[in-house]
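Each lists chain and fold; for instance:
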Amino acid sequence: MNDKTSDTDAEDVEKYSFQPGQSSLVSRNITIFGRRTSIRLEPEMWSALNDIADREKCSVHDICSLVYVRKSSLTSLTAAIRVFLMLYYKAATTDIGHKNAGHGDFNIMKRRARIPAVYESYFDKREAKQRKTSG
């Protein structure tokens, strides 16, 4: 169990807290094969795109161009980018990485998510019900 991220989680909660009616999407210009276009993604998605570009030693524009080439004509570019990000990180996961991140224990996940006390009884009831049906 690794709880090193608790300070970072608190900062993220503060950083991404939005007022009702306020969009959490951030609009940025990207270039796809020399053609400029604007896409709107969540701040976490932009952060992930930048991280991947750093890891792959390329630009966000390069990644978005690759996604554009591979996406279905029926899929929007923003949806295709979100799927790419999920698949990229999914391919990078390992059992050891999950264990080090504290994954695999819903109680740790609840603690990291800072579930308000009013919801605790809901989760406790569901967990008890699951134990009964699986036992």
Notes: Residues 117-134 form the longest helix (18 residues). Residues 1-10 have pLDDT under 50 and may be disordered. The helical segments are 6-15, 43-56, 60-70, 77-92, 95-100, 106-113, 117-134.
